[in-house]
Amino acid sequence: MQRAYIWAYATTSHADTQAAVYDFRPGRSGEACREFLADWRGYLVCNDYGGYKAGFANGITEVGCWAHARRKFHELTERNDSPIAKKALSYIGTLYEIERQGAELSPEQRQQLRLTKAWPLIENLHEWLRHQRAQITNGTRTAKAIDYTLKRWEALIRYLDDGNVPIDNNWVENQIRPWALGRKNWLFAGSLRSGERAANVMTLIQSTKMNGLDPQAYLRDVLERMPMARRSDLDALLPNKWTAPVKV
Asked: Is the pLDDT reported for residue 189 higher than 90?
């Protein structure tokens, strides 16, 4: 039996094009994302997984995920009463509150809100974390949580540069949820080819949902039109461009 993996990529919730793409791969090495992203250049919101590093060296812009940084401190509070972790969570919670305030704003307005409210808070958080770290013994759980955040600092604050960029990668993790919920139903794909086909079908289904469409109606219409479709027609059949046929 061979273990395989699903890689998920998605446009941000603020993007004009709403889509998720699932890439079925026999492994989880960095080669998978390098092959998939190829010559693409843009903002990639992600955790600290080492497989992305080559892409950053080739021009992809790394954006850190505040949800992952927050998780490190949240784990501390679950283990013990940590005043440092609680204060860090308070700082990060305020950053998320600012994001909620800007949810319905334009990208330009959202960026301005971040610069006005989030940037001063982030500067204070950075200074406070560095001060706390200087007083903590290396190797402790608290030190490791702070080190993760400080190590990723440049990437974590990069979301301030563009109102289209989210504060975390929770959006794409939500697009992975259908796979997680149905894991037991499709634990065995049968073959790598079958896994690739399943990923393609799920890409279409999830993308239709992201665009507010009925997946069953979409797939029925596209499958009926495909045999007669020309290559020039295919773009209009994508979930973000498809429109339901008018019944007469």
From this structure: no
Can you read off the two tokens belonging to residue 18?
């709403």
pLDDT in tens, 52-87: 888 888 889 999 999 999 999 999 998 887 899 999
Closest alpha carbon to 12 in 40, 45, 61, 37: 45
Overall size of the chain counted in residues:
248
Do 164 and 111 touch, CB atoms closer than 8 A? no
pTM of the model: 0.86
Residue 197 CA to residue 192 CA, distance in Å, equals 9
Domain boundaries, the chain: 5-61+170-237, 66-161
Structure tokens at 97: 């509150």
What are the phi and psi torsion angles at 242 (to 5°)?
-70, 140
- Alpha helices (H) along the chain: 30-37, 53-57, 66-79, 83-101, 107-113, 119-133, 141-151, 153-156, 170-181, 192-210, 215-225
Give how far Cα 76 sits from Cα of 15, 66, 137, 210, Å: 35, 16, 15, 35
CA distances from 39 to 9, 24, 56, 63, 82 (A): 15, 19, 12, 18, 44
